[in-house]
User: Fold these one by one.
Assistant:
Number 1:
Amino acid sequence: MTDKKVDPEIKKITQELIDNGTRYDLEFLDNIYHDSLKFVRIDKENNIQVLTKEDNMDFFTNLKSSGAKPLNNYAEFHYADNDGENGFVVLTRKMKQMEKEQEFLFNIYWKKMDGKWKIIRETVFVR
């Protein structure tokens, strides 16, 4: 088995995403998600749900509006790379959904545009 490779720049921006997303910082999320974001969620039964940026923003807006407590910010980084233009990260997150703590494996694809990192695709597997 090889050592974990975790690019510090991609890890840092991903941690910022987690810290702001778990507190429902809508302005941060709106700026970090690219307009053409595709968010693919695969549940334990292999059902696939594909969301847009608007769908994802609606999810966080509804949580914030409902007064929901912040989400768990647990993150275990498995891999992250960065070639200066594209970034990729694989991490495990634990969050409470439907009154139950669940584990999620995330693959997040970043693209640097006008000097700023944007998320263009996010895939999450419910474990």
Number 2:
Amino acid sequence: MSSPPRLTPTQMQVLRCVHSGLLNKQIAYELGMAEATVKVHMTAVMRKLNVRNRTQAAIAAGQFGWLHS
């Protein structure tokens, strides 16, 4: 796998929530933002990771070691 793309801190927060199994509405509540904003961040994450869905994004994040804190 090549070097990891750069994600913003908010994109990382959203990605961690996705990995935890939260839905967009739940993520929006947790992070204090609109559901549409969560979708924008998740779309950007998937584009940067070159994946098609949330599951693939979570898998890629694990491969990059982003989910271990």
Number 3:
Amino acid sequence: SVPVGETTPGRIFNVLGEPVDNLGPVQSSTTFPIHRSAPAFTQLDTKLSIFETGIKVVDLSAPYRRGGKIGLLGGAGVGKTVPIMESINNIAKAHGGVSVSGGVGERTREGNDLYMEMKESKVINEQNISESKVALVYGQMNEPPGARMRVGSTAPTMAEYFRDVNKQDVLPFIDNIFRFVQAGSEVSALLGRMPSAVGYQPTLGTEMGSLQERITSTKEGSITSIQAVYVPADDLTDPAPATTFAHLDATTVLSRGLAAKGIYPAVDPLDSTSTMLQPWIVGEEHYDTAQGVKQTLQRYKELQDIIAIPGLDELSEEDR
């Protein structure tokens, strides 16, 4: 069981729900077990609505679904924290919601950087912890595999309290969903199970399903989750990312090329996808504008090689 409720935002917890930020014990009278069943089918909220992030390129080209699951694809150093911080700020200020950030098997340094950035942007208020908008749960890569795997259950448990009891909009982050699978693979090997494809655990689909089914919206409140997905060797057919994609409503792809040019957030509108970009959901005008932008960018991409070698003079008047 882990502490849940209004006293959790602004604090850092480990897998057992113990505070690790040297700010003393958490004054919480309510605890929830981390192993909970997913909401019943009849409780789910299925209506389609857009979750506005406030990031124009995302809201235009690959909008998020309120209560959906979003994958954030990008390697190290492409600025994953930029869309994360924007989304936390937006859900706190525009929707009065809270966020829970789950660091699953990532570097301690990254967790520390995120904490410092949150304090700087006042998402975590040091002077008055009760005004903070995000709780942090960390199981970094030096922890045993069991701890790293179970952090994936601890963070959603804290989010479920705000959804079910406070009836709020919640934004849980999982960084990184691949490390959750990796930890499960290590546990599976320790238990002596026969490995499946590419050496992953035979229960990969079940483990992923039991986590993802909990991160969902009910008629009480919404959970819109953003999950960073590391793609090993950029192979999208690898069983870990492939199993994750089956659960996602939208993917935001971060491009190293854009980050190198200093364009943040480095979202690539051509590679990013969303099930919400349909004319009957976002409207004809939004849909046509988004497709027009993508066509222009695609044409520019095709012309880049011509511009790079023979130069602009070789282009037709229209292409210029």
